[in-house]
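Researcher: I've been going back and forth with a colleague about how Protein NLRC5 might be arranged in three dimensions. Neither of us has a model we trust, so I'd like an independent prediction. The organism is Durusdinium trenchii, in case that matters for your notes. Sequence below.
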Amino acid sequence: MGAESSTHATAEKRTGPPSGPNERDTGTKFCCCRGEEADKEISHGAIIREALEETEVPGDFLSFKDPTAYSRSSSSCQSLSDLLEDGLPIMQVPNGKGSWHEEGGSYKSCELLAKSLADGDAVLVWGSWLVKLAQGHPSCNASASAARSVLPRRQNLPAEALCSIDEIRKGTPLLAVSYCWATATHPDPEASQLNLLGQLLDRWLSWRQRRSDPPVNGPGACQDAQNQGISENLPMSLAPQSELHGEMRSDVAVLVDWCSTYQEPRFAAERRSSERFLQQVGRWFAHERTTVWLLTKSPLGAEPYSMRGWPTFERAVSLLPIGSKEVLDIGQLQNTSLKSDWPSIAAECQAKRLPPLTPAELRDELRQKHFSWSHDRELLGVLYQEVYEDVVERAIEMPLSRMKWGDLEMGQLQGTLGSCSQLQRLDLTRNRIGDSGAETLANILLQSPRVLQSLHLLDLSGNEIGDLGLCSLAAALPSVRSIKALAFDSNFIGDPGAERLAMALPNCSGLQGLILRRNEIGDNGAGELARAMPRCSNLQLLDLSENEVSDVGAERFAAALPKCGQLQRFDLARNRVGDRGALSLAAALPRCHLHAFGLGGHEVGEILGGSRIGDGGAGLLASALLRCERLCKLDLSENQIGDRGTAQLAAAMPHCGQLAELDLYRNRIADNGVGRLAEAVPQCGHLEWLRLLENSYGIKGATRMVEAWEAAGKAKGRLLCRPSPCKSGGYAGWASWGSPSRVVPRQEGDPKPKVRMSL
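Model: Here is an independent structure prediction for Protein NLRC5. You can compare it with whatever you and your colleague have in mind.
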């Protein structure tokens, strides 16, 4: 496999006449990335985060990020992980044949990726140098007599073109290019692909330089030590600037096979070096911090990209589910798009992600592709299997959100999920999965005993699942005995689905979190869930916000809450609960255990608003608050509370010794009500955030409140109080709590409100 493999792989990217039916030149360039298995350390980026926020419970629990994962997203980032009691330790995975893990490698670490360059088997070139070369800069031409600038072999690269290993360690963005060779002697003699690459790099680098504060994640930015601020949701992030010769350099390190590894004619030692690097190609293309550009439009006269063996392998490895990795299909770019800004180009070229091919499926596909040397077909099957075993079969998390997958793709996913032996977190949020796809998933779970033994978290939020689909999943759930968290946020689930799920819940003994937010569940479904709650001995969180539950459903929950010894968070916000439901919940509140877990600043016992509560309901809640000594957050936003109810709340506030945040946004509070709150503020030592926007008070009430707030020594930016209503499109949510700035209208893609116990 060794020597022949690398020599032939290089030749195989050319487009010379085929030497046989299965040995046609595939033009598949031997990308500077082929290779060995990867470490089991797959994406640990938040899989479902944002459904649950801010809990300080021991352990590294399942990450639930409700907003980001589905149709809303981003700033709220505390998780269900924090809620789940035992946490999910990363399992130790045995080394496999050729595994990068065996060498101490990782598909997340730039440091370890840089080490693979230390032996000199490959080099990376600066993107800015490629731009100059494409533009015909004299300093980049190896031969002054050359008619045009073309890519030089690695042996002919000037020193200024090379990116050092230290630059990779510092976090320089990484880019791997998959393309087709045009001829057997040179991959791009007409420089057509070089010119395209140069234009794209120029666009990207220019855009990055215009950014005043570039983020850390560019075409594959690598940042191990500083990735706390990385946003995983950006379509194309930026890499950190790295120091070069005492200055800050904004650039990208590019892996392109003709320049990155030794080419013919070469010495025996150079040939062996190229062969060694062939074994590493997979780790480069699959690495989480490597952005991949697929130049899927072959040069004129060359074999199509889709018919080449090596490009098929490179594409398949690049699209394996690893973190928030970006893969661009440059072939989707229209000629006029080159004049667009970089974000538009990146958005247009996002590669279509399909369910990962199993090793057997890839081998079948490679049999239909053209190779200059048939031996490479076997080699690529082995290299892909090594990466697949580490990245998929030993995956702890499977990040498959926002893939635009429907029911058809769920059927194609069966082989992939069936091969997972240690999968703990499955994220299928923001796809197009319907009832048929949910039924397929249920069958996969029942037919995959290894998944049944390991799966802790299943998130199907932001799909198109209705009652039939949830009924199918509910029938399979009791078999998934390891399940700890379920999320079905933003689907089309009504009472029948909720009722069937309620029947299955008592058999899910380990379930700790259930999210059914933004569905169509009414009182019947709520009643069955309420009946099942006391039998869910480990249930700590239930989110039913933004459904169709009325006072009847609220009363049933009120009867069940005191029987739920482990329940810490309960969210019934923005339903149809009125004063009657508020009365029942207020009466139950002091008797339930929602306040028992209040030590160490835990946010339990919160009440959410957004329903139909008026002065009467506010008064009843005020009476209950007198006995809620550990209440720390109270949200009664978007109700109909006026001055009378506000006065009763103000009288109760000083007795809530832990009350830190109060939200009365968008009610009917006038100057008198604001005045009563102002009188209570000095007596509320823990109160540090108050929102009174979009009420009916005037300058007099606002002035009085501001003066009382400042006199109490509280931070100015933590009081949101304006006499004139701000124009907002909806509830800003708990994610905005504590924000000193304006209230942003809630739109699709915005972060999900924090999950709290609610009315």
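Researcher: What would you highlight for our discussion?
Model: I'd start with this: The chain has a mean pLDDT of 75. After that, consider the following. Residues 192-210 form the longest helix (19 residues).
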